[in-house]
């Protein structure tokens, strides 16, 4: 029997984390010829994840360039994927989420009439400029895709509202939970000795990530000032902030936050140490997307420093609260969780709406079923 040729395409660290467990499963799956292509929209951070999961790309566009713009990425991926797709002729490509690599790879496949499967489909914030350009990348990819692997029922409903045929949508849970559960270890030791010296049992460790484009400027200044004030008010609090490589973010962080006994500005972490730091933290402050899915799996409350989120299921479940980017609002919500154990436990114990560690398994079953390789009907992920 002819094998199903499946090409997985990604280019950034977040995509790699969420797609790595799926690629591993595809490589093991009977009846599937798995091909891995990376664009290296990110280079160093992408390679960290490839090394962690022991993945060797079959194709690598290596497009990253210092100071690259969205237009630069778009042109390079579109042209680079054209040649690779013509050479390999996959039966279907799989892309993930909302990056420029995702949208443009889907467009390149469409131009050659190659079916597209969209992993983590159906997320919507309702504002095409927030997050930017991710929200529009999601929508455009959804318009190009033939198969939609929606993490949740809410994502499924978003796609149905956009007139996507229900028979082409599968509710799978999110692959990030599959990845997370593979790398978290109870007695994990960090390479950075500063992280091993932190008293996670007796200190309330706040893990922060902050890098979103829409928060550059005054919003990020507000966030950094709020965190400084929180450490001054609460002597049992320590903050760990893996600072993004963007020079403007690093400069502002150093200027406002500095390095104190309560403030640890560290280099970006590989996925494995970051996941284990997430597991040890007391509370998460973030403007990122994926962490809103990961932290609930570990029982960690999350305050989202944005004005909206494309992951409303987490808000509805009670694991996430959107607090905006105003200094006083951030301080108020952090104070509430630090001082009120009832509020903290309500968020920490809420059911994770994003997955159970079997998303990759469901995606492969759906692929085989939809493309005629198997008669096994895929089951849907549900929190009920």
Sum up the structure in keywords.
384 residues, alpha/beta, Rossmann fold, 2 domains, seven-stranded parallel beta sheet, six-stranded parallel beta sheet, 13 strands, globular, EC 5.1.3.14, UDP-N-acetylglucosamine 2-epimerase (non-hydrolyzing)
Structural class: alpha/beta
Task: State the CATH superfamily name of the largest domain.
Answer: Glycogen Phosphorylase B
Q: What is the third-level CATH name, the topology of the largest domain?
A: Rossmann fold
| Broad shape | globular
Distance between the termini: 38 Å
Pfam family, one: Epimerase_2
EC number: 5.1.3.14
Keywords: Isomerase
GO molecular function: UDP-N-acetylglucosamine 2-epimerase activity
Overview of the molecule:
- The chain is an alpha/beta fold and 384 residues long.
- The protein has 2 domains: 4-174 and 355-371, Rossmann fold, CATH 3.40.50.2000; 190-349, Glycogen Phosphorylase B (Rossmann fold), CATH 3.40.50.
- 45% of the residues lie in helices and 15% in strands.
- The chain has 16 helices and 13 strands.
- The chain has a 7-stranded parallel β-sheet, sandwiched between helices. The chain has a 6-stranded parallel β-sheet with strand order 10-9-8-11-12-13, sandwiched between helices.
């Amino acid at each position: 029997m002819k094998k199903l040729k499946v090409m997985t395409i990604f280019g950034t660290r977040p995509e790699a984390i969420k797609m790595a467990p799926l690629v591993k499963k595809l490589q093991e799956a009977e009846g599937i010829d798995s091909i891995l292509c990376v664009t290296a929209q990110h280079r160093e951070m992408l390679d960290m994840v490839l090394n962690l999961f022991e993945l060797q790309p079959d194709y690598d566009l290596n497009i990253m360039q210092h100071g690259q713009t969205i237009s630069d990425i778009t042109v390079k991926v579109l042209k680079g994927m054209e040649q690779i797709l013509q050479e390999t002729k996959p039966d279907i490509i799989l892309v993930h989420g909302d990056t420029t690599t995702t949208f443009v790879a889907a467009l390149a496949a469409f131009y050659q009439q190659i079916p597209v499967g969209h992993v983590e489909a159906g997320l919507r914030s309702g504002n095409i400029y927030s997050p930017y350009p991710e929200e529009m990348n999601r929508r455009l990819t959804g318009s190009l895709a033939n198969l939609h692997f929606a993490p949740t029922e809410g994502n499924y409903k978003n796609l149905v509202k956009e007139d996507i045929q229900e028979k082409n949508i599968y509710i799978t849970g999110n692959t990030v939970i599959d990845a997370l559960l593979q790398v978290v270890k109870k007695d994990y030791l960090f390479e950075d000795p500063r992280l091993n010296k932190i008293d996670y049992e007796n200190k309330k460790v706040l893990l922060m990530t902050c890098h979103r484009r829409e928060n550059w400027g005054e919003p990020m200044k507000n966030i950094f000032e709020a965190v400084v004030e929180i450490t001054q008010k609460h002597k049992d609090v320590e903050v760990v902030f893996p600072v993004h490589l963007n020079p403007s973010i690093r400069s502002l962080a150093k200027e406002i936050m500095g390095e104190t006994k309560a403030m640890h500005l560290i280099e970006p972490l590989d996925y494995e140490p970051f996941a284990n730091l997430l597991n040890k933290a007391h509370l998460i402050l973030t403007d990122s997307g994926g962490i809103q899915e990961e932290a609930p799996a570990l029982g960690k409350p999350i305050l989202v420093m944005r004005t909206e989120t494309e992951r409303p299921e987490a808000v509805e479940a009670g694991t996430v609260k959107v607090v905006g980017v105003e200094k006083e609002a951030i301080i108020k919500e952090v104070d509430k969780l630090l001082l009120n154990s009832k509020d903290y436990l309500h968020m920490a114990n809420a059911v994770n709406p994003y997955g159970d560690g079997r998303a990759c398994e469901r995606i492969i079953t759906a692929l085989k079923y939809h493309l005629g390789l198997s008669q096994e009907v895929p089951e849907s992920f549900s929190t009920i």
